[in-house]
Amino acid sequence: MSATNPQNNKMKELNVKKVSAANIPVESVPALLDEEKVAFQPVNTVNWEAFPYRPDVEFRIAHTEDAILLHFKVKEASVRAVAGKDNGSVWEDACVEFFSVPAADGVYYNVECNCAGTLLIGAGAGRADRQRAPQEVLDKVQRWASLGREAFDERVGERSWEVALIIPYSTFFLHHITSLDGKTIRANFYKCGDKLQTPHYLSWNPIELEKPNFHCPEFFGMLNFE
Description:
Order of helices and strands: EHEEEEEEEEHEEEEE
Largest sheet: 14 strands, mixed
Radius of gyration: 16 Å
Number of strands: 14
Helix content: under 10%
């Protein structure tokens, strides 16, 4: 079932506001999105009965001349940030994710961020042939994490946390994308934590597969960029 197939009537759409963020530091992204009245969207779809836990997760997104702005807020039963270096196993930690197809060629990018702002970025047409972003690409993604940027072992007990990202278009390192103005791209947003006390796999747009798998662009929703 493809994302354009009318059978997939659960596909969500979201309009992405264009804002001016010239020279603002990443820690100011939440205040900017407040000012611009960019609303939060829930990441609350439990797709697999074996993993019923649903922490409180929401995101909001905007774009500028040269970047995507992302802000996630999470409240969950424990947090973990063991992956201390970029392109490590951040999905095993308290992790939020943004997958997108920025061009029309079927290549999708996975931007995964743990609660300490450590990133994994990959690109490819399928799950098996991912190419990891080079460190110089990762270094250009600005990150703010409310829990700080240091790695830490699991902390059990309810915690709230936030991350904000400024993702320049150069992050799409297999493409030459200079603007998303007026474009519609397919995307999904996720929350996971494979090695947390209570593993879970939430998505923004529903996924109709038997087992947990976020690498499924056929179930991405739509983002309409102003």
